[in-house]
Every structure is written in structure tokens, then in C-alpha cells.
Amino acid sequence: MRAVLVLYFKYFLKWDDDLATSIYHTFVALCYLTPILGAIVADSWLGKFKTIIYLSIVYAVGQVAMAVSAIHDITDTNRDGTPDNMTFHVVLSMVGLFLIALGTGGIKPCVAAFGGDQFGDHQEKQRRTFFSVFYLCINGGSLLSTIITPILRAQDCGIYSQQKCYSLAFGVPAALMVVALIVFIVGSGMYYKAKPEGNIMLDVCKCIGFAIKNRYRHRSSKYPKREHWMDWAEEKYGKLLIAQIKMVLKVLFLYIPLPMFWTLFDQKGSRWTLQATTMDGNFGSIVIQPDQMQTVNPIFILTLVPIMDSVIYPLIKKCGLNFTPLKRMTVGMFLAAVAFVCAGVVQLQIDKTLPIFPSTSQSQLKLLNMGNNSITVQLTGNKTVNLHPHWASDDYFTFEEEQIDVTVGSPSFTKRIVLTKNERQTLLFPSSISDEWQLMEDLTSKPQEGNNAIRFVNGMSRAVNVSVAGASFGQIQPLYFSNYSQIKNGRKAFTLQSGSQSCEFSREFGFGSSYTFLIPSTMTFGTNCQESISEVEDIKPNSVHMALQVPQYFFITAGEVMFSVTGLEFSYSQAPSNMKAVLQAGWLLTVAIGNFIVLIVAELAKIPKKWAEYILFASLLVAVCIIFSIMAYFYTYIDPAEIEAQFKRKEGDNDDDEDTKAKLRKVEAEMARRGSVSSDDEDQRSKQTSF
Ligand SMILES: C[C@H](N)C(=O)N1CCC[C@H]1C(=O)O
């Protein structure tokens, strides 16, 4: 659904680019923020199973709201194909997105933790495989949707008038969500469903609050120190709850540097896609659009997850290396930094091929002879240029002056031309040099999104209408020019029309070029005017191939697999039984914070050299990676189930209360059912292991 969301904002709701991207990023960040709510509901009140079901319904309703909001016919009272009450569509789609974000919050942390719950402590290897498969599924879904939803959107649909079918692009995921929910409910009898233990988050907050207050009350040196500040809650709260809170706080503390990874990771959707717009996406039989390069990430995940799990990790283990989860995450961060170094190197290659645009103290001028005779042009600074008929100077001349004198032909004719700083312009010489000279404003940056910027100059003495599929240059007056139109890559056929006469010419376009086509006065209309049209290349097409981005995608994805899949499993294995979903949400919170940092960084980091920006980000991540590895070195792995069992046994021994003993018997029966009593730990994780 995300694949078409920005397009829906732009083309259906008619929002500008800035509003569309801001709402898009806010929605994505919200999707990683709401898990904290879903997790609290699951761990304290409903349990994971019911939370997944209820919030999946919320999600599906949100998706249906999106599908309905995209039916233009609902408010199209005059049946002209555009909605007449846009407020209705905006409000409904915002409600839909909010429900989807809320539903995501219920599903994302609970599905991961609920999946983890299905394995006993002796099934650590299988549980790790589950988290890998879970990650594969997320990304398999993402890959399929990026392929399928744009196809659905491209269909025409409607009752009164046919429009692009966003309602189908949103409706099909809604239907699939309902199917998924039914499948999940049908399997109900097969799942292990851990019971929620009351309002655990409220207890946690109260316990932490009490520990802080109590510590403050006993701040004088006459009171003996306690091992941990949470131990100051012992007067009022049970040892088990305090131990569980310590486990969670230890992990959350370790998470502090992690948003930096996601800050880099999420820039592949923005900075890397922008980089791709300055590259050549022609892969022979297929042409890749800049934003399609992002699909390389899920493709690599689908291949790298099984390779890591079945080849790389076992190989490292065979070499006798203890590749603990925190070591994997550190290596993952380092690989992401390597990916940004690769992006920097690619940027250096791109920069070599980019035109040199005028600085703020400079202006640039190109000369174009519309006439049928050669002319000699003299510019300030003794620059002399010979221009053949229908010909332009090879490149732009750069000037520091604010105005220059231009002298043409003999007997000579001189005009003073006022230049604009920081701008590129083209000066048009008419056939009769004493006629008016036109000055066109040219582009001072590459066209956006890898498009090509095209314009026409009409050297004829009659108006000409120029059109091409998907763009129109309109009626161009004699000896005048059109505005730029953006066209995609590929072969384009242009139709030139004047009165009842017309002719065609076609040309192949790459990515990111800019051309001025001159319709000479000598041109005759017929079926083909290919030979007559003169072309002037203002900006060269992109020449650095998009394939050069593959290494950076490889490293960021390898880093993601090591960092993110391991992080999911680590968050589960180190969480106390009653806060498994909460720690999953804590993990997803690092993604949300990373997304917010991207929004801030995008505003602040205005380094003129893009390659330097990539290297700066890589260096920052390496620094964070070093801090994380030091924190990880001091982290001691725990087995929460074992610790909880010990506390429960102790509580049982000290307490003759039948109710407590009954509770303990229940816990032990449950643990035995899940196999946590006999732990045949087959790999590196011992009960208490360091980094
Ligand atoms: C899209 C990523 N490849 C991905 O799967 N994720 C990024 C953030 C965490 C994870 C997800 O759960 O969406």
C-alpha cells in the first residue's frame, strides 16, 4: 500500500510534493510508534492473540476506508472525472491511515512476540529461524506489493468516468488482510497463548517511580548503598517484578545508540533514490526507474536471510568463533557504514559527469543561430564563435560580468546583453540579425526524477503546435520558444502541426538530459521531419550506470539482516515473559526515532558536496558502532525464564499460602509444557554470557 501512497496524495488528493512526502513520512513513523500502545494492550490486558485479532480488524477497516476514499465517483456530482468534495476524500483517507497505523501497532510487535512464544527455551535454534522467516515474510510481502499495487493502480476504473484505480490498489490489500485474519483465527487451537498478567505497565511505572522516590528519600550517606537503584523499590514491590524491570531497562539502555542505524537505513528511500535520478537505468531489455532501485533491498533480504542462516553463521561457528547476537548487530552497523562509503564513492563518479553550473557570482550563456546563414559572434573578453546555420555553441560560456557586449556579422551589429547571476541562458539569433534577439532561461540543475527536460524553438515564420504522448508544448509562436516539458526515458514520437499540415520525428531518451530542438525555417511539413530538426544538448544524459548502486544496497541489506533480524530475536529472548511484546515495541521504537532523525537531518545536513555527506554519515555510524560495542561488552546475557522460575520457586518456599503455591505449580506446568525445564542449549548462548 505504501508503494502508491505518495502518488495517491499527489495525483488524487492533488497535494504538492512537500505535503505528500511529509504526510508519508509521518505515517511511516507513526506505524513504528504505535507498537508501544499495541504491546501495552497485549502484555497487560488482552494478550497477544486477541490484540492481533482486534487490531487486525482495525487495520482492515482502515484499509477499506482508504479504498472508499479513493472512489472519485462518490463526490463527482457533475461527472467530470474529478471529485467535487475533496474534503470528504482527504478526511476519509486520513482516518483510514490513522486506523492502519493503529492496527500496525497492534500487529507488528505482537506477531513477532507471539511467534516467539510458540517455542520452548530448548528450541532456541528454531526460534531464531522463526524470526528470520518472519523477516523474510515482511520483505516478501513488501516486494510483491511494490510490483502488484502499481499495476492495480494503473488500471482504469469508475462508474461515471474511468480514472486511475487507487481504490483497487487499496482494496486488494484490504481483502487480503481479511483473508489473513481468517487464516490466523482458524489456526487458533494450534497456538500457545501466554496469559496477560494484569496491568503490568502500570505496575512497572509505579515501581520505577517508587524506587526513584525512595532513593531520593534515603539520599543521606548514613543509609547503606544498594546494588542497583531499582533495589530501592524492595520495600513495596516483589523481587520478581524488580528483577523483570531490571532486565527491560538493561536492554532499553543498550538500544539508545540504535536509531542511528535506521537513520542511515531510511535514507535509501530518499538520498539514494535521488542519487539514482542522476544515473542511467538502462539495463538492456529492461529499464529501471530511480525509485524502483529500492526493490533491490527486499530482493537481497530474500536471498541473504537463508544464506546467513544456513551458510555464514554455521561457518563462523565451525571456525570456533562465538558470534553472539550483540556482535552480529555491531557487524551489521559496520556494514551499513560501508554501504554509505560505497554511496560516497559512487557519488564521486557521478559528480565527475555532472555539468558545471554557474556559481552565485557567475552566469552562463549559450548561443543558438536560428538563421539559415553562418554567423560569427564576438563576446566580451575577445571570445569569438562561428555558428553554422541552425547550430549552437558547443558549451556554455561563463561570465563574471553582469552585462556583456555581443557583436555579430559584418557589417557588425552589437547589442548589450544583461545576464542573470547563478543562471544559464541561451541567446537566440534570428535569420535577420537586426530583428529582436530572444534570451531563454535554461536549467541549472538536472531534471527531477531522472526525467528529460525538452523544449522547442520555432525558427519558422508561422506558429507550430508540438505534442508528444504525455506532454504538450502548446502553440509556439514564430521565432519564439516553448517552456520545458518533462518526459520519461525511452523512444518518444513528437508531432509537429501547423494549420492542416503535420509531420513527425522520434528520438530515444536516456535519463536526466535536457535538449532544445530547433524547428528551422527551411523545414517542410510532410510525414517525416526527422532530418530537418536540429538538436542542442543542454545537459548530457546520465552516464554512470545504476548498477553501481548494487554494492551499497548489498552492504546495507547484509547489515540489516545481521542487525535487524538479530535485534528482533534478541529483544524477544532478553525480555521477561510478561513484557515480550513491550520489548518488541521498544525495538520498533528505535526505527521510529531513526525516521524522525532523518526528517531533522534532511533539514540540517546541507553539505554542498553530497559525497562528503555520505562519508560523514558513515563516520557517525562507525562512532556509534564503537560506543555500542563497548556497551555490548558489558552486557550480560540472561535467561529470563530461568530467572523468573528461580524467583517463583523462592517465593513458593517462603510462602505457605496455598494460592501462591497453586500459582507456582501453574507456572512450572506451563514451563514444562514449553520445554523450558530441560535446556539442551546447543549453541553459544549459555545462561549468562557476555558480549
Ligand atoms: C523494510 C525493511 N527491510 C524492514 O523489513 N524493516 C525496516 C524496519 C524494521 C523492518 C520492519 O519490520 O518493517
TrEMBL record:
The keyword Protein biosynthesis does not apply. Pfam families: PTR2 (PF00854). GO terms for cellular component: apical plasma membrane. GO terms for molecular function: symporter activity. PROSITE patterns: PTR2_1, PTR2_2. One of its GO terms (biological process) is oligopeptide transport. It is found in: Apical cell membrane; Cell membrane; Membrane. InterPro entries: MFS_trans_sf (IPR036259), POT_fam (IPR000109), PTR2_symporter_CS (IPR018456). It catalyses: N-acetyl-D-muramoyl-L-alanyl-D-isoglutamine(out) + 2 H(+)(out) = N-acetyl-D-muramoyl-L-alanyl-D-isoglutamine(in) + 2 H(+)(in); glycylglycyl-L-isoleucine(out) + H(+)(out) = glycylglycyl-L-isoleucine(in) + H(+)(in); glycylglycyl-L-proline(out) + H(+)(out) = glycylglycyl-L-proline(in) + H(+)(in); L-lysyl-glycine(out) + H(+)(out) = L-lysyl-glycine(in) + H(+)(in). It is a multi-pass membrane protein. Keywords: Cell membrane, Glycoprotein, Membrane, Peptide transport, Protein transport, Symport, Transmembrane, Transmembrane helix, Transport. It comes from the Eukaryota. Its main location: membrane. The chain crosses the membrane at residues 20-40, 52-74, 86-107, 128-148, 168-192, 247-265, 299-316, 328-350, 581-602, 614-635. Residues 669-691 are annotated as: Disordered. SUPFAM superfamilies: MFS general substrate transporter. Belongs to the major facilitator superfamily. Proton-dependent oligopeptide transporter (POT/PTR) (TC 2.A.17) family. Electrogenic proton-coupled amino-acid transporter that transports oligopeptides of 2 to 4 amino acids with a preference for dipeptides. Transports neutral and monovalently charged peptides with a proton to peptide stoichiometry of 1:1 or 2:1. Primarily responsible for the absorption of dietary di- and tripeptides from the small intestinal lumen. Mediates transepithelial transport of muramyl and N-formylated bacterial dipeptides contributing to recognition of pathogenic bacteria by the mucosal immune system. This is Solute carrier family 15 member 1. It comes from Austrofundulus limnaeus (Annual killifish). The lineage of its organism: Eukaryota, Metazoa, Chordata, Craniata, Vertebrata.
